[in-house]
Design goal:
By secondary structure, the chain is of the alpha+beta class. It is 52% helix and 9% strand. It has eleven helices and four strands; from the N terminus they run H-H-H-H-H-H-H-E-H-E-E-H-E-H-H. It has helices at residues 3-15, 20-28, 35-48, 52-59, 66-77, 81-91, 94-98, 113-136, 170-173, 201-210, 219-225, and strands at residues 104-109, 156-161, 164-165, 181-186. Strands 1-4-2-3 form a four-stranded antiparallel β-sheet, covered by helices on one side. Helix 3 packs parallel to helix 5 (66-77) and helix 4 (52-59) crosses helix 6 (81-91). The longest helix has 24 residues, at 113-136.
Length: 226
């Protein structure tokens, strides 16, 4: 966000009275903001609307980085578990994307606003990650660095729209369908930090077991596959 954007939003909040929330939300849809800006805007909006979850839902979608989004949510909700669960429910699939947990399976309904926002954010991130990998590829146009399923530098895999296999490319998004069920896997975006701890096979199996994603009788075969 530029200084001009920042001043405009601040002035809008101060002078809008009962319409402050609507005016700020309209402004935020055009920009990406940092945590310091997000905190300032959130504080101002809370003066007009004391519902923290409602305000956060509007502001956090414009935060530029998932680390900033995580920090904003923690500061505003202050470990309020019930409020966190409500925010997670209202943001739907956007919540995991905002928090940086991108990889996994998605089942989206394109008639729902949060599902569409989620897809748009994933499209943006996939294109960014793909470009970064291409730039870092020693052979540039070669396959080095391309971890996509279809050789297109995309993070989208196993895409199905209304039950039919598709490729999520530019033709699908121009324009984006107004409704329909979209299923896909998203993988290959982020990379672990250098100091990230490696999870052992037994610990991973235990997690799967505790979350009822693996039956006890299949523990042995699962460990063999890992």
């Amino acid at each position: 966000m530029t200084g001009c954007d920042h001043r405009y939003i601040s002035e809008a909040v101060e002078g809008a009275g009962g319409n402050a929330v609507e005016m700020v939300v309209a402004s935020l849809s055009l920009v990406r903001i940092r945590i310091d800006e997000a905190l300032l805007i959130t504080e101002s909006m809370l003066q007009d609307n004391p519902d923290k979850v409602s305000v956060l839902k509007k502001v956090v979608l414009s935060v530029n980085d998932f680390r900033d989004a995580y920090g904003l949510i923690n500061v505003v909700l202050n470990k309020d578990r019930s409020a966190m669960l409500r925010l997670k429910k209202e943001l739907g699939p956007c919540f995991r994307v905002i928090m940086g947990n991108l990889d996994g399976y998605y089942k989206l309904d394109l008639s729902l606003q949060m599902d569409r926002i989620c897809l748009e954010r994933l499209i943006e991130l996939s294109a960014t990650y793909g470009q970064v990998r291409q730039n870092k590829s020693k052979l540039s146009v070669g396959k080095i660095g391309d971890v996509s399923q279809k050789g297109n530098w995309s993070c989208f895999r196993n895409e199905y729209f209304e039950g039919s296999a598709i490729v999520l490319d530019a033709s699908f998004f121009s324009p984006l369908p107004g409704k329909g069920k979209l299923d896909f896997d998203y993988s290959g975006g982020g990379r672990p930090n250098r100091d990230a701890l490696v999870t052992s096979d037994s610990a991973l199996v235990k997690v799967l077991l505790n979350h009822h994603l693996l039956e006890k009788k299949n523990i042995g075969p699962a460990l063999m596959k890992l």
